[in-house]
Amino acid sequence: MDEIVFSADCSKCFGLCCTALSFERSNRFGHDKLAGQPCQYLADDFRCRIHERLEDLGYGGCDAFDCLGAGQRASAAFATENWRRDTAIARRLHARFSQLLLLQEMRQALVTAANLDVPAELHQRRLGLLQRVGDEADSDDKDATGAAQAVLADGKAFLKSLAAVLAA
Ligand code: SF4
């Protein structure tokens, strides 16, 4: 179940990590790219034209990146929208993708925290948050939502409190 929840399915994604996100030329990326701008190596079918040579050509950062399933979720929500021709819709798609990235990262952190030796009450809270985060990540929302922002803030505060308990 977790594998399915967190597995990226690039075959069902509009190349969002290669478009929505920015990166800077470094030892992980070979050129500068602005957020919202398709990478120069992204093909029309959303495949990477240098996929087999990413490391060799200095794009190890691409190889290491994992959207945890945010890409196919955002793409599914916008499948019937004309985001290719309408930049306003494309901006909404990219914003939703960015929020889904955070939701999936939070979701994974809350799942991983199941192994922590903390009081049962904290695990109850963790499960409640996990449910909320999962509901937001699996919703059909087309826009970054205030509800998702709120649950992300709650999750961040909870993880901080867990770290404090573990450090005590
Ligand atoms: S190099 Fe390939 S994987 Fe990296 S951003 Fe460009 S198209 Fe995507």
Overall description:
- The protein is built from six helices and no strands.
- Helix 3 (70-77) runs antiparallel to helix 4, helix 4 (87-112) packs antiparallel against helix 5 (120-137) and helix 5 (120-137) packs antiparallel against helix 6 (146-167).
- By secondary structure, it is mainly α.
- It is globular.
Number of strands: 0
Amino- and carboxy-terminal Cα gap: 33 Å
Taken as a percent bin, the fraction of beta residues is: under 5%
What small molecules are bound in this structure? iron/sulfur cluster
What is the SS-derived class? mainly alpha
The 3D shape can be described as globular
Average pLDDT metric: 95
Q: What proportion of the residues is helical, as a percent range?
A: 40-55%
How does the major sheet shape up? none
Rg is 18 Å
By DSSP (H or I, 4+ residues per run), the number of helices equals 6
* Strand and helix order: HHHHHH
Unreliable stretches covering 5 or more consecutive residues? none
